[in-house]
Amino acid sequence: MKYQSVEDVLPESLIEEIQKYASGTTLYIPARKKTCLGCKFGNQIETKKTK
Fold first, then answer.
1. What backbone phi and psi angles, to 5 degrees, belong to 45?
2. What is the pTM of this model?
3. For residue 28, what pLDDT band results from cuts at 50, 70 and 90?
């Protein structure tokens, strides 16, 4: 996991808003979930492992 300074990533107005809720603590922001092939259309493609 790579740490970045919030000042390098977020605008000052957003930093001030976040500080109202979590000032002086470390926050973890997870990556966005990746979608699987076909998930957007409701027809997921299943893959099977062969032995």
1. -100, 120
2. 0.53
3. confident
